[in-house]
From TrEMBL:
One of its GO terms (molecular function) is argininosuccinate lyase activity. GO terms for biological process: L-arginine biosynthetic process via ornithine. One of its GO terms (cellular component) is cytosol. Signal peptide: none annotated. Belongs to the lyase 1 family. Argininosuccinate lyase subfamily. It holds the Pfam family Lyase_1. PROSITE patterns: FUMARATE_LYASES (PS00163). Pathway: Amino-acid biosynthesis; L-arginine biosynthesis; L-arginine from L-ornithine and carbamoyl phosphate: step 3/3. Its EC number is 4.3.2.1. Keywords: Amino-acid biosynthesis, Arginine biosynthesis, Lyase. It catalyses: 2-(N(omega)-L-arginino)succinate = fumarate + L-arginine. This is argininosuccinate lyase. Residues 8-253 form the Fumarate lyase N-terminal domain.
Amino acid sequence: GLISFSDRDSILKGLDEIERRIEAGEFVWRTDREDVHMNIEAALTDLVGEPAKKLHTARSRNDQVLTDFRLWCRDAIDRIISSIRHLQVALVKLALNNEGLIIPGYTHLQRAQPVLLQHLLLAYVEQLDRDAGRLLDCRARLNFCPLGACALAGTGLPIDRFMTSEALGFTAPMRNSIDAVSDRDFVLEFLSANSIIAVHLSRIGEEWVLWASEEFGFITPSDSVSTGSSIMPQKKNPDPMELVRGKSARVIGDLVTLLTLCKGLPLAYNRDLQEDKEPTFDSVKTITGMLEVSAEFAQNITFNDNRIQKALPAGYLDATTLADYLVKKARYF
């Protein structure tokens, strides 16, 4: 092999110590060492000496960064899917707790037909299920290992890309080394999926904000998910869902940032791509928060049956049912 067993053991022992120091907050990051790679390599050299210089064998920062990024995105997708499932459970419980409740259904924000509240809430669940499916599809496509692509043209050293790929839980090594280090389509797909989730959550937020208004009065949020006013003592504002609605713009903006970043880059690696992390991290943090807040809100609202029953007789909600009855009696109109 390229590295002896004794050197391997020294490197692993040194890396374990560096990991311990980082987790304990004891590691000293030096700006004169340019980046995380140089900091780790220099610290490892201080710990184990000459073997540390072999750590970088058959590696470039390009393929290392992309490997780390794919691993991070893979884990982030798993976390977001878990948050989606949590919200779905909250919505299903809300539906079960209001079994049989009929509410006005709307088109164009005009009263249209009576529907079961359960049916409406489960529409959200279906949308979120597709959101999770898109993330799973994205995860499957990003789960390929760039290691061994090096800067762009691979390496002439005898490495086993399949072994490293399998050890890190990837499906297989990436087939083209230039593609491996130059494209960010896996992140674009990830942020696109997040943006669709954000749009769905924004629509839920808009509906619940309307329902909490005095004009509708269909729901009453508990005090734990409401805010008052600094001047108007009667106010009970559904701020969390307003913020969910507002945060959706941020998630969509993160996607547009990355699309704009990538649109003019020739093959292969360009330093512009260093800017891909900030919108990705922000998108994940924001969408996770939106899902958690939406689930918390769903667990802390009460449907006002009296207000809903008063709304049902107005607006001729049974007109379609009457029309269907007339058609069945061959009385066309």
